[in-house]
Design brief:
33% of the residues lie in helices and 25% in strands. The chain is an alpha/beta fold.
Length: 522
């Protein structure tokens, strides 16, 4: 039996077939305009390369940029009704605070401030007014709004009010698509609310995309479970993905880093993934991407759900080269999926970073004779810019961890030489060009809890920690992990000294292998 990992990038769609830890076949295809047909092409080509029948496929894992692109391009998103439970508090900073005007306008700014919410210790800010919620539902009906984002103050600590609002809306507006902040974001009202609103605006698009991906498998003759990559290096099934599309943000760079760890056999390293359009630089800790400690910004909106700490720069194999001598500039614009038509080594008329790599002897792509006309000074200067730009980005990500090995992956990594004098340990592993798809194929399933707890002493603290570990493991199992494989991979305790007593923010993450033998539940 085999697994297939697929990663859809701006330039290429990669597919990898794996049996256990063995790579059976790798395929790289150009991303199609409609994306889905490119996935079908990659799946069918991968099966043919491995000499397998579709029935031999055990599961398919896909990493996609559909949802991130929708937010960035303001395309395919739907208006959202935003219900916040917190009155009489929180009025000073209403929903959509700090959002780009174009995105606020696209979502309609339908805001409802209602009573409810909790303090950090569980006390009510005010009681939930169910009649108030029912009046809101009537207004939603009159406006034809079906996507609803519900946020309550400190709901990760106590989700009772959000769950009750969901019951009321579900009974009176049964066709609504609900997004609850307690299921999406972490502590921190505005950022958690922002992530919930983004999720709500993508719910309609998510239904269409998951159906299209399932259809792609059917077209390829594959009858196996389909999973989408999450931004923490794990996967979720289609039902979960249709409910929480926001969790796919930044899954591409995460897949590349996980694939790099697998291919290199390293658990701690810095990864440079160079694609056709961008380069992503991240740090792996214990085989998982280091998480961003600051707020993450998606399409100009600040959020606080888990995201990898990744630095992206506009430099890739398709980056356009302009100028002469010391005035050479490379990127950030790219020919993208049109590289085989527009790059000089393929007979095109656009000078790209790939052309420089071929002319400089770093890569054997296309027809080298077509770039013999390039001046040696231009090639040397261009390759120097490529190298120094990437190294500068790596230097920013390494901070104090200067001794970490550097792993180069992605088809565009041929822009760099095998050895870099500035770094002692540089590696380009086998199958480096499809590390992203390998990362998708080996993905696991996770569960996480994020709580504020108050302990009376060391015994009480240990009990609370054990409870959090059990809750995280249960979340991983409910998401589809095999119970026997679940382990705790991260425990983070932060004392909140500004609060009275021994108050601590406790975050625990559990990870386990995907159990394919039974359907997973969201």
């Amino acid at each position: 039996m085999a697994r297939i990992g697929v990663d859809v990038g701006g330039t290429h769609t990669d597919a990898v077939l794996m049996s256990g830890s063995t790579v059976l076949a790798t395929v790289k295809r150009h991303t199609s305009q409609d994306v889905t047909s490119g996935i079908v092409d990659a799946l069918q080509a991968g099966l043919a390369a491995a000499g397998l029948q579709p029935k031999a496929v055990q599961a398919v894992m896909i990493g996609t940029t559909h949802f991130t692109n929708a937010v960035v391009e303001r395309r395919g998103i739907t208006p959202v009704a935003v219900i916040r439970l917190g009155l009489p508090a929180t009025r000073a900073l209403p929903p959509f605070s700090g959002w780009p005007a174009s995105l606020r306008q696209a979502l309609g700014e339908h805001v409802y401030l209602c009573h409810g919410g909790h303090e950090f210790d569980g006390r009510h800010i005010s009681s939930l007014d169910e009649s108030e919620i029912r009046m809101v539902v009537q207004d939603l009906k009159s406006r034809g709004l079906s996507s609803v984002a519900v946020t309550s103050v400190f709901s990760p600590m106590n989700d009772g009010f959000e769950q009750r609002v969901a019951e009321i809306i579900g009974s009176e507006l049964p066709n609504s698509r609900l997004s609850l902040s307690c299921e999406i974001g972490r502590l921190g009202l505005l950022q958690r609310e922002n992530a919930t609103i983004l999720n709500a605006c993508l719910r309609g698009l998510a239904d269409g995309i998951t159906d299209a991906l399932a259809s792609a498998l059917h077209t390829s003759g594959i009858d196996a479970p389909l999973f989408l990559s999450r931004n923490d290096g794990t996967v979720m099934d289609l039902e979960h993905a249709s409910r929480y599309p926001v969790m796919t943000f930044s899954s591409g760079p995460t897949n590349s880093m996980r694939g790099a760890a697998f291919l290199s056999g390293l658990s701690d390293c810095v990864v440079v993934d160079i694609g056709g359009t961008t380069s992503d630089i991240g740090v792996l800790t214990h085989q998982f991407p280091r998480e961003a400690t600051l707020e993450s910004e998606i399409g100009g909106v600040r959020t606080n759900f888990r995201m990898p700490d990744v630095l992206s720069i506009g430099l890739g194999g398709g980056s356009v080269v302009r100028g002469q001598g010391e005035r050479i500039s490379i990127g950030p614009d790219s020919v993208g999926h049109e590289l085989p038509r527009r790059a000089m080594v393929f007979g095109g008329d656009t000078l790209t970073a790939t052309d420089l790599a071929v002319a400089g002897g770093l890569a054997d792509i296309g027809d080298r004779s077509l770039v013999d006309c390039l001046e040696a000074e231009l090639v040397a200067q261009g390759l120097h810019i490529l190298r120094s730009t990437v190294l500068s980005a790596v230097d920013r990500m390494l901070s104090a961890q200067r001794d970490l090995p550097l792993i180069m992956v992605g088809g565009g990594s041929v822009l760099l030489p095998d050895r870099l004098e500035e770094l002692a340990d540089v590696r380009r592993p086998e199958h480096y060009a499809v590390a992203n798809a390998i990362g998708a194929a080996i993905a696991q399933v996770s569960g996480e809890v994020d709580r504020i707890v108050s302990s009376d002493g060391e015994d009480s603290r240990a009990q609370l920690l054990d409870q959090a570990k059990v809750a995280a493991a249960e979340k991983a199992v409910s998401a589809g992990a095999s119970p026997a494989t679940v382990t705790i991979v991260e425990v983070d305790e932060v004392p909140l000294t500004y609060l009275p007593g021994r108050v601590t923010r406790l975050r625990v993450k559990a990870v386990g292998d995907l159990e394919i033998s039974k359907p997973s539940a969201p």
